[in-house]
Automatic annotation (TrEMBL):
A Pfam family annotated for this UniProt entry: LIM
Cited PANTHER family: OS06G0237300 PROTEIN
Keyword tRNA processing on entry: no
Keywords: LIM domain, Metal-binding, Zinc
Name this polypeptide is given: LIM zinc-binding domain-containing protein
GO MF annotation list: metal ion binding
Originating organism: Sinocyclocheilus rhinocerous
Amino acid sequence: MERMAADKLIFHKTCFCCKHCKKKLSLQSYAPLYGEFYCVFHYQQLFKRKGNYDEGFGHQQHKDRLLVDPSFL
């Protein structure tokens, strides 16, 4: 069985699929986010729907994770 590597992970070629639609991905047509892999179309669609990459994928927004010393505010 053929293998391929993406983002330092090894996949069977037939198992490297979009998390959303299960379409087979290639090294030239995928978008990684938080260890998940998406086809470019669904990555962009999920981004547009929520307005930012974090919310579109069910993760906490970067601005909410930012640690700021209150004395700087």
